[in-house]
Design a protein that fits this description.
Shape of chain A: globular
Distance between the termini of chain A: 62 Å
Largest interface: A-B, 61 and 61 residues
Radius of gyration of chain A: 21 Å
Largest sheet of chain A: none
Low-confidence stretches of chain A: 1-19
Oligomer: homodimer
Structural class of chain A: mainly alpha
Number of strands of chain A: 0
Number of helices of chain A: 10
Mean pLDDT of chain A: 89
DNA sequence: GTCTATAATACGATAGAC
DNA sequence: GTCTATCGTATTATAGAC
């Protein structure tokens, strides 16, 4: 008998009177809590005790499943990298015209960020605290996630629908335009308290304006 | 007799044989070290001991000058907010044609980021760790720094040289395209180890491509 | 103004009961 | 598999000498 994820993990006590849990569910709960904590505070700043409290278990369990703080961190980083690949790959962007593929990529990135608004901070924490030492182990996944965008830009230039541009720099500019919005959200809500920048309607506005800006900035107007 | 900032702060011992220092210089050294530390690790993750070591003084001095960790953090946040204003205001962007002013703004932002590559992390740390609780105290400064860009976009639309766009969203998109480059640097160096993304030549490439993308994305092509 | 020494606490990790 | 209790260390902060 397994717990359903999302409900309280306690199972009624066994005949011995001791409460028991589903190990796989516990592991996932720890990972979820750790992702939030490490996103907020990074590897050094993250508190094992805080993760345990959020996950509803004790610090001893974390050491039982992940050996130590660093092992847990490594496991936390792995999941989003895989999910990013899994979000991009099934789109089969290589089979679409560059312009269509680009818009689809942009909307997928923004939807991913909207679904995990603070997950990107994981990578900024990693970059700034550890100079990407743990990120380094995942370069393969990220190359897979970003490669399709490079490919789109090169195909667009080749067929003449995109103007001449540097694919790598343009990739960074596109991602920046899409993602920065979510990074600054918690600060900017104090600049413009009346707008809920994470509401679906406002995120959709962000997506539309992003697509418009990037397409206008990249399309070859002589074409 | 004062120390010159940047050289070793020790002054030859006085007649009593006790080494002395310039209090103002000490304070600045603490602020510099603290900015680096808090940028890397945020308020909670930052270590007073690490700041003291970098500044070349003891932890006792930090408490002497800034009362406690939180007081030091508050002082650290204040300086970049002021400097951002001081970088933008003298450009007198309101007196330039929108297109010229926009390019100047973009290049100023990128130059500022290149000069302080990890300073932007201060704000991300603040956003994610503290939900902008300390940022809130500085909204005035940031409104002053960003206001000119909003103004440029609105003037451009009014005179018809810019297409119809949302000034606030476009501001975020522009900043994202300019700044994201520096945020991901430490991770992406592992994706493309052969390129030194902080070298002046590559930063200039980034600036050129940014200007090109943003201007092309914003200009009214019917104009 | 700056240091050394230390008190007080917070945190990561482990042992051992159940 | 999960908990309670605890050890050892790292960290913030302070007291007091110079």
């Amino acid at each position: 008998m397994r717990c359903i994820a999302g409900v309280l993990p306690m199972i009624s006590s066994s005949s011995s009177g001791r409460s028991v849990r589903d190990p796989e569910a516990t592991k996932q709960q720890i990972l979820d809590a750790a992702e939030a904590e490490f996103s907020r505070r990074g590897l050094q700043g993250g508190r094992i005790e805080a993760i345990a409290r959020t996950a509803g278990i004790t610090t001893a369990m974390i050491h039982y499943y992940f050996e130590n703080k660093e092992g847990l961190y490594r496991s936390v980083l792995c999941r989003p990298a895989q999910e990013a690949c899994e979000a991009i790959a099934p789109l089969q962007l290589e089979k679409l015209p560059p312009k269509v593929a680009l818009e689809k990529f942009i909307r997928t990135v923004i939807a991913y960020e909207a679904a995990h608004p603070q997950r990107c901070m994981l990578w900024f924490q990693e970059a700034n605290q550890n100079q990407g030492e743990y990120f380094k182990l995942l370069t393969g996944h990220w190359a897979d996630a970003i490669g399709p965008l490079i490919d789109i830009l090169e195909r667009g230039m080749a067929e003449g629908s995109f103007r001449a541009l540097d694919p790598w720099l343009t990739t960074v500019h596109i991602l920046g335009a899409c993602i920065f919005y979510f990074n600054i959200h918690e600060n900017w809500k104090h600049l413009m308290p009346e707008v809920d920048r994470l509401s679906p309607a406002v995120v959709e506005q962000h997506a539309q304006e992003s697509v418009r800006l990037i397409l206008a900035g990249i399309l070859n107007h002589k074409f």
